[in-house]
């Protein structure tokens, strides 16, 4: 890749950005991939959950969402009221609860794969718990239509990729 210009100390200048990566000058393109809009929506949804703002969290869902927790032994929640109940019950029994998105990938065609680490302190306890899992989230018109959680991260990623391919 060529440089569009050099400043006086030999750093690359492109689109107003100076770039010097490991001593190698590289061009910064305005079209470089960034976090997808859907991945950003997933991140904002998790922020609402962490703040326990269930009204805001529910606003990320379409009119008839489905959250499949069967891989975790919890069943399938269909509709806005059952999904809200799941969200409230899921983190409501903890005095402290945080969610970290370890990996967030827009697989394409409205499908997002996310690896989640949750850490919490159960109500009335000094002990702490943590759970690492993956979710495949399907968006329709920028709203969550369907989500499925998996304890097996590789199985989740493969399922997300198959789902994205099937929706092409």
Name the shape in a single word: globular
Portion in strands: 35-45%
CATH-defined fold name of the largest domain: Nuclear Transport Factor 2, Chain: A
Order of helices and strands: EEHHEEHEEEEH
Biggest β-sheet: count, sense, barrel? 6 strands, mixed
Question: Can you characterise this structure?
Answer:
This protein is of the alpha+beta class and 168 residues long. It has two domains: 1-32, no CATH class; 37-166, Nuclear Transport Factor 2, Chain: A (Roll). Helices cover 27% and strands 38% of the residues. It is built from four helices and eight strands, in the order ββααββαββββα. Strands 4-3-8-7-6-5 form a six-stranded mixed beta sheet, sandwiched between helices. The protein has a two-stranded antiparallel ribbon with strand order 1-2. β7 and β8 (143-150) form a beta hairpin. The longest helix is centred in the N-terminal third of the chain and has 14 residues, at 37-50. It starts with 11 loop residues before the first strand and ends with a helix.
SSE layout:
Blueprint (H helix, E strand, L loop, with lengths): L11 E3 L2 E3 L17 H14 L3 H5 L2 E8 L7 E3 L1 H13 L1 E15 L2 E12 L6 E12 L2 E8 L2 H14 L2
Parallel strand pairs: 3-8
Antiparallel strand pairs: 1-2, 3-4, 5-6, 6-7, 7-8
């Amino acid at each position: 890749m060529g440089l569009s210009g050099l400043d006086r100390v030999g750093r690359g200048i492109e689109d107003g950005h100076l770039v010097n990566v490991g001593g190698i000058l590289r061009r910064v393109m305005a079209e470089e991939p960034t976090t997808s809009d859907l991945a950003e929506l997933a991140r904002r949804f998790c922020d609402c959950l962490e703040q326990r703002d269930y009204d805001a969290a529910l606003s990320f869902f379409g009119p008839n969402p489905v959250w499949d927790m069967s891989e975790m032994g919890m069943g399938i929640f269909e509709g806005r009221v059952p999904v809200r109940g799941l969200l409230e019950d899921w983190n409501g029994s903890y005095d402290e609860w945080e969610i970290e998105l370890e990996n967030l990938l827009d697989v394409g065609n409205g499908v997002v794969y996310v690896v989640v680490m949750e850490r919490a302190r159960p109500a009335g306890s000094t002990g702490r718990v943590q759970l690492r899992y993956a979710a495949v989230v399907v968006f329709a018109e920028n709203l969550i239509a369907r989500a499925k959680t998996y304890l097996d991260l590789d199985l989740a990623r493969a399922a997300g990729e198959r789902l994205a391919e099937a929706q092409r």
